[in-house]
Amino acid sequence: MVIRLVRIVGFGVGVATGFAASGSSVQPNIVFILADDLGWTDLRCYGSPWHDTPHLDRLAREGTRFTNGYAAAPICSASRAALLTGRSPARLGFEFVTKLPTAKRPAGHPLVGPPYPLNLPLAEVTLGELLGGAGYATGYFGKWHVSEHHGGYLGWSPTHGPLQQGYAEGDQEFGLHPYGYVANPAAKSTRLPAGDFGRDPLTERAIAFLRARRSSPFFLHLAHYYVHDPIHSRAPWLVEKYAARLPAGADPRRAEYAAMIETLDHLVGQILHALDELGFAENTLVVFTSDNGGHPQYAANGPLRGSKWNVYEGGVRVPWIVRWPGRVPTGATSEAPFIGTDLLPTLAAVAGAKLPGGVTLDGRNVLPRWRGEPTAPADRERAFVWHFPYYHPETGFAQARPTIGVDDFAISQTRPQSAIRAGEWVLLHFYEDDRDELYHLPSDASEQRDLAAREPARARELRRRLDDHLRAVGARLPTRSAAGR
Q: In this structure, how many other beta carbons lie within 10 angstroms of the beta carbon of residue 480?
């Protein structure tokens, strides 16, 4: 059942006149589609040699594909909190997935991470509040994961869910995703015939939201559960297709993962078809991205090093596709860098909405980059910071691979770390041994040649900038444990 709630927003966001961003007096519609754990090279248009993603490839042809777009964190909840607020996980104190204070903490490590985050505070101004205050009909459908689970894993909180954070209606439906097997175990054994992807109630409810829009601009926030594990597909015809494509000896779960990627693509295609059918496409900005890098056991994040859970490029660089007919270049590929915190101020510019007063944002309006305008010299040296002060995996750490590699299809030991990218250079800092690594991305996208010893002055300067930033935002740092004393 679709949930509706009318909320009066009172933080001072108003509608700017003229909508200069679009060159029109009509506010554009906005569709934001967020995938879960989709890696940077998981789509055909981003170079995957295995996965068929015709609908997302079409979106890229009709818009711009960005190759230096980043998630604000290498993990789900933290990244989503940043997308919603325009504020970094370090500033929010929301650097991990949401957990109860009583959750068991990893033991036996030299350091102890900060307390786990739980609920995104209601005082934070979200995209739903910003755009709802600017006259948009707002709908949130799918995964929230920035508050305490209610009634089961990923259940929306009745006090801190989307409907309490500015979205007027929405639904937490799992749809086709294996998360739904808990409530409907028989679904797991259902086998779909060739060519059939199955019905996805989540997508259907998002499309129903679109169909109900007639007199006001809309903001559809569709947060898919795909392609997060558990990895499973009900379409054997898809699994068989990908099993035949994968290299000999590949983990058979990668065929199931590939089937999930094509299913995600199919569901995105249904949204695009609905926009066409309803006549909305020409005046709708569509943004597609992922919350973090791909899962190391299934996603080939190469040539990038690392994966979900760590701050090497494979954990934070993600696909970003932007389509806005007549405003965003078509069939273009851009190397312009930006990050998840930029979404809120950029959508504010698109909608003609005033940013909330008295709120310090980490994001910037990157609409000029989306529109293909030249990058200013100052923007080219802009720094991006990631902060992950925890160990991962939480259990089985000793059994995980001790080093973080490239396409090794294994969970690695991630230790408390932070990173800063400024221009062509990235520095990673590791808290256990106060060690830095320095990489030049244009010549070493795989982060294999640590240049910290060869470029000590550059390493010191980037470390200073990283430390200064973390102090300025009040970042929570790991502390020495009893085992590490």
A: 12
- Encode pLDDT of 440-460 as tens digits: 999 999 999 999 999 999 999
**Mode of pairing for the β-strands spanning 218-223 and 137-142:** parallel
Structural domains for the chain: 27-380 (3.40.720.10), 383-480 (3.30.1120.10)
Kindly list the distances between the CA atom of residue 230 and the CA atoms of 150, 190, 370, in Å, as whole numbers in the listed order: 20, 16, 34
Report the candidate in 413, 424, 411, 417 with the shortest Cα–Cα distance to residue 389.
417
**Residue 407 neighbours by CB distance under 10 Å:** 17
Question: Where do the DSSP E strands lie in 346-392?
Answer: 383-388
* pTM of this structure: 0.95
Q: Which long-range contacts (CB under 8 A, 24 or more apart) does 189-193 make?
A: 190/234, 191/234, 191/235, 191/236, 192/234, 192/235, 192/236, 192/237, 193/237
Left, alpha or beta for 188 (phi > 0: left; psi -120 to 50: alpha)?
alpha
pLDDT at 399 over 60: yes
pLDDT of 214: 80
In angstroms, the Cα distances linking 301 to 37, 169, 424 are: 11, 35, 20
Active site residue 145: yes
Helix (H, G, I), strand (E, B) or coil at 131: helix
Q: Give the C-alpha separation, 16 to 345, whole Å.
A: 13
pLDDT of residue 401: 97
pLDDT, tens only, 296-335: 999 999 999 999 999 999 999 999 999 999 999 999 999 9
Q: Are strands 111-112 and 338-339 parallel, antiparallel or unpaired?
A: unpaired
Strand 417-422: give its sheet, edge to edge. 383-388, 417-422, 425-430, 435-440
Confidence grade of residue 5 (pLDDT, cut at 50, 70, 90): very low
Catalytic (active site) residue 45: no
CA distance 216 to 374: 33
Q: For residue 142, which amino acid is it?
A: G
- Catalytic residue from among 51, 55, 145, 392: 145
Q: Can you tell me the mean pLDDT for 60-80? A: 98
Report DSSP letters for 193-213, one per residue: PTT-----HHHHHHHHHHHT-
Distance CA(426)–CA(406), nearest Å, equals 17
| 8 Å CB contact between 242 and 214 | no
14, 353 in Cβ contact below 8 A? yes
Structure tokens at 132: 């709802």
Task: Please tell me which residue in 45, 51, 55, 76 is annotated as part of the active site.
Answer: 76
Range 55-64 average pLDDT: 98
User: What is the CA 327 to chain-centroid distance, rounded?
Assistant: 24
